[in-house]
Every structure is written in C-alpha cells, then in structure tokens.
Amino acid sequence: MAAWVSGSYDIWLDEQYALRDLIYEMTLEESLDEISYRAQATIVVTSDFPGMKPGQGVRVIGTPFGGTEPVDLLHPAVVWQCENSYERMDRLTVTMYDCTIYLAKSEDEYVFSGGMTANERIRRYAEDWNIPLGHLPDTGVKLVKAMYRSDTMYAMMMKDLKETAKKGGPMYRPRMTINGLELVEIGSNATVWSLEPSENVMNIMQKRTLEGAVTKVKVLGTKSAGDGEAAQVLAVEEGEIAELGTLQKIVQDSSFQSVSEAKEAAHALLSGMQETISVTSLDINTIRAGDKVDLAGSGMELIAMSVRHELGDPGKMVLELGSPELVRRRYYMNESV
Q1: Statement to judge: residues 205 and 258 lie in one domain
Q2: Same domain as 304, residue 204
Q3: Any residues with CB less than 8 A from the CB of 290 and at least 6 apart, and which?
Q4: Under a CB-based contact definition with an 8 Å cutoff, are residues 72 and 61 in contact?
Q5: Which terminus has fewer CB within 10 Å in the chain: N or C?
C-alpha cells in the first residue's frame, strides 16, 4: 500500500533502516510549555518491516518547504512508545521525541550560588549529564542563589530562564539540534514566513477573552512576617482597572533584589484582554514553537506558541499565535522561581 507521505519524508531507524515506503501518516508537534519536539507516525507493518521498540535511535528527515535537499527535522531523537493495532491491516503507531525528553523526565538536585547566568547553569547541567552543547548565548542576567531539590532538569532550566526574563532579559527556549542543546531567543528566527489569508491560509480563528487578564499586581516580600502580620508589600502596579475591573495577581518571589526590580516585574505582569489567533494553513514544515510568524493583514507581531505539522504533499499545519507580550506573561512570568 502506498503511503500518502511517500517521497517527502523518511524515518531512519538506528541509522540502518529507511522506513519511507511504510509511513502511512506522520505529525510533528511542539509547544512552548514543553521542551521536546514530538513526532508521531503510523507505520504499515509488512513482512520486511524491521520492527521498532522504545529506546531505539531514530531521526525524521524531510525536504523543507521551499527547499530541494532533505534535512533533519527531528534529530537526535528516540523511539518513546509503540502501539500495535489491526484494522484491515497491521499498523504500528510510534511516538518519538527529540533527546531533550530525557531532561523532562529525569530529576536531580543542585545548589547554585548567586551571580551565575542561565547559560552558565545550563552548561553545568549539560556537562553533568554528558549532553552535547551547541550555541549557548550569554543570557546576560545574574541570577540569585538557587536550591533545586528533586526537580526535573527541564524545570530547573526553565526556572533559570524565567528569572532571566522576569528581570528584563530576553526570553530563551532550550532546543535540541544536530549540533547539541542550544538556547534560542524567542522570535529570533532569521526566516520569517508570511501566511496569506488569500493564498495559503485555510482557516483563521481569533479569540479574545478576559480569562487570564491582570489589571493589578501586588508584589510581596518573602521575609517571614510575625503572627497576625501581613507580608511586606514591595510594589503595587495598576493597569486597565477603569475599563476592565480589578483582576489582581499576588506575586511572592525570592529572586527580586530591589524594589525597582519588583516594580518592573509587576508592570510586566499587567495584561488586558487576552488575544490569540489559531491558523490552519498549508504546511511550512520548518516553523517551530517560539518562531516569529507574519500573518498578513493582522498588523501584529506574532509568535508561534504551539505548532502541529501534518506532514504530506501538501501537508497542513495548525499554529496558535500570540504577541511577544502574551508569550512573556504566559510562559515566563507565570510562576515564582
């Protein structure tokens, strides 16, 4: 039976077997609240199928949109889960992740002195776990002392990167590449693809809501107050209270070293109406979560918060888009460090 993604994409298993002709369907998915890029494929089981099992090395290869030569879309990666089913034919549904999945599933403990940057801490994690490193930019913000107990490696990384963003630094995302683990600044992609409603876009859904809006922020100190005493208030910032009403958020964060830092963080948390845009379009298979995307006619700077590629000729993709400010609030300012 001919696979509908035949000719466009391939799965290499253990660097020995090419499964191109057995692929019935395949997707690639990623979101900013997870570290790992995920592929799921349905494989037609034939007499010459070599078999797959969790733990095997795997890579997904495809020709990038607008390109001519195949590239690695998911590599290095691992087979994570296999499910067999039978409905008129034997099929195997395989879930694969890039190798950052081990950082999301493994726990450790660390104690860091103050003054280190997020990139220095990530270098330490990688050295301890024998993770190859690619490009690690200087994140530029000195972090406070941290004591991480039984956290996942990914959770520790994100706490470091959230503290960086909370203190006014850029937003960074860990990403596994063929060169190793890298830090990619949100919206820094060199190629920004344009989605044209009159050409390559099938559907656009725009959502506006007050769910998640914050019109008042109160930042509390972390020093213990006496019995019956309220915590010290470091900063109070107000936004669109007159228009939207009072929606208050309380923040208690040990990383703030001054009242000015607390006020800056409080101001960054203020948000009015929440607006997201979901776009279904012809697939551009190299768009990743965290990439800047141009939606023609929107008049907005937009970041892909989640991506689902349904691979094929042509394929289809679904993107959830939001402003950089929404990304910062939702993914980098949303919890204490």
Answers
A1: no
A2: yes
A3: 32, 173, 175, 184, 186, 187, 303, 304
A4: yes
A5: N
User: Which runs of consecutive H residues, i.e. helices, occur in 167-312?
Assistant: 241-244, 259-269
Residue 234 lies in a domain: yes
Distance in angstroms (rounded) separating the CA atoms of residues 240 and 20: 55
Q: Classify residue 133 by its DSSP letter.
A: B
Q: Are residues 199 and 295 in the same domain?
A: yes
Numbers of helices and strands, H then E, in the chain:
6, 20
Q: Considering the entire predicted model, what is its pTM?
A: 0.89
Q: Is residue 337 part of a domain?
A: no
Are 293 and 260 in the same domain? no
Asked whether 52 and 91 are in contact (CB, 8 A), the reply is no
**Does residue 121 form part of some domain?**
yes
d(CA 246, CA 251): 16
